[in-house]
Amino acid sequence: MRWSELWHSGTGLWRRDPAVHQYHFTGYHTSMRVLFLQRHAQAESGAAYTTDHERELTDGGRRDAEAMGRHMAGIGQFPAHIVSSSAVRTRETCEWMSRGANLNDIEVAATERLYQATPDAVMDEIRSLNGGYGNVLMVGHQPAWGAVIQRLTGAQVDMRTGAVACIQLSVRTWSKVKSRSGRLVWFMPPMAVRGNGL
Fold it and tell me: Which CDD domains did the record assign (predicted)?
């Protein structure tokens, strides 16, 4: 079963209760779009690299990305499709996320348009997403990611490296996404899933 089928046939959306660190089922929203925005996991400093684009993940960043992928798969929310910045650290984040979710055939599209992108450019990229996917993970960078989350939902989050925000969009097609068209369902920093055995 592909994850897109699992999402629509029996998973639904979950909301995190920070008081007890649990997730609660909130119902099905199959007519809407769900966007996961993730900042790349922790990367090496730029001193050892010729360009910022080449920076790789630290060992801790790899572990965090793998744990996040394992956790998202465990709660039935690993996406059907991934779009990543072309930077090495974002592509590595996708790789370790997929490894944690035990999904080797997940579709990942890397694009230069998400590297050093402005919030406007990210919004354009969201609107251009393939309509066949109801839920998509986009992996990129600050400060654009935090600004886009605020633009879509009105929420301000501490978008640390490796963190993921789940946004439910009240649109039937990606092309209709606009400011305040979504709500923040949950936000998860990597520290919340470290050592998670799911």
Answer: HP_PGM_like
